[in-house]
Request: fold
Amino acid sequence: MPPPYRQLALPLPVADGCDLADLLEDASNAEALAWLRRPESWPAGRLALFGPAATGKTHMLRGLAARRGWPVLPGLTIRGWPAVPAGEGLALDDADCVPEEAALLHLLNLCAERGQRVLLAGRDPPARWAVTLADLRSRLRAMTAVMVHPPGDALLSALLRRHFLLRQLRVERGVQDWLLARLPREAAAVAEAAARLDHAALAAGGRVTRALARAALVELPGFGPDGEEEDAPPFRDDGFTDGPTLL
Reply:
């Protein structure tokens, strides 16, 4: 008897643009998105997004940069006298990780001279960054900063559905609720879970079930312990019905 058929899982790219209009909004990010929609109103042309890891700061930063045509600079690369691309503005991710204070001060001063807007993202508000240069400290303290909070239930549910839709992965609503009750409450964890489930479903040649999800996500950091799965409370998202919705 021939061995059972198994579909080969290929690392195909998933289309997931960073356009600002595609970002999902809830109470956790509404204030930040409101500011991002009107860069012309930023005091002194600068805005900083801050908050815990995996709350969507980088996605929002890249979304605005893509819409406005701004370059995105990674903070860890800013050293010496950095080359700052000319243009309307620029975005600096992990701005609190710039290894040289003088390099960040030069970047901010040069953008101010040119009239370029600057969007920064980091874990803490700029006023609390540990800097020693007095000029840099004063500029950071004067900067408008907006917190991005951990996502709420409705946003996490919508994110999971979006990732499944992008991957053309059909998942029953009951399985989605079961997953959301056990996944870490982070956008990055939801995205990683969807990727692992997609790979596992392709390899198995079947649909996403609780058993497949348990096996595929057992090594995902923060996923609910197997011994507590059946007793865990269901994930609630009052914006949708309890029926067996398929994507």
About this structure: Strands lie at 46-50, 72-74, 89-93, 117-122, 144-147.
